[in-house]
Amino acid sequence: MPDAAERLLEAAGITADEPGIAVADSGSAVVDALATALGEHRAWDRFPAAL
Predict the structure, then answer these.
(1) Euclidean distance between the first and final Cα of the chain, in Å?
(2) How far is 44 from 48, CA to CA, in rounded Å?
(3) pLDDT of amino acid 2
(4) Residue 14, CB-side half-sphere exposure with 13 Å CA sphere
(5) What is the phi-psi region of residue 20: left when phi exceeds 0, alpha when psi lies from -120 to 50, beta otherwise?
(6) CA gap 49, 4 in Å, rounded
(7) CA torsion angle for 13, 27, 44, 15 (degrees, to 10)?
(8) 20 to 30 A from 20, CA-CA: which of 30, 35, 42, 51?
(9) How many Å apart are CA 31 and CA 11, to the nearest integer?
(10) 3-state secondary structure 1-51
C-alpha cells in the first residue's frame, strides 16, 4: 500500500485489515478485492452481533 494511503487510513483511525477495506499494490488487485466484497453484499464483520 502506498505510504500516502497508509497515512490517510491511520489518520481516519482505520487499519488496512478491517472488514470492507480493500488495499493492494495495483488498481486491478483493488478492483478484484472490491468485486469479492460486493459479492458478499455487506461487510458483516463491521457490525456488532445483535443483542
Answers:
(1) 36
(2) 8
(3) 55
(4) 14
(5) left
(6) 33
(7) -20
(8) 51
(9) 23
(10) CCHHHHHHHHHCCCCCCCCCCCCCCCHHHHHHHHHHHHHCCCCHHHCCCCC
| Cell numbers at 22, concatenated | 480493500
The H or E element containing residue 49 is none
What is the DSSP secondary structure assignment for residue 8, as one 8-state letter? H
In this structure, what C-alpha cell is assigned to residue 18?
A: 478491517
Residue 27 cell numbers, joined: 488498481
Amino acid identity of residue 3, one-letter, is D
Q: How confident is the model at residue 1 (pLDDT cuts 50, 70, 90)?
A: very low
Amino acid type, 47:
F
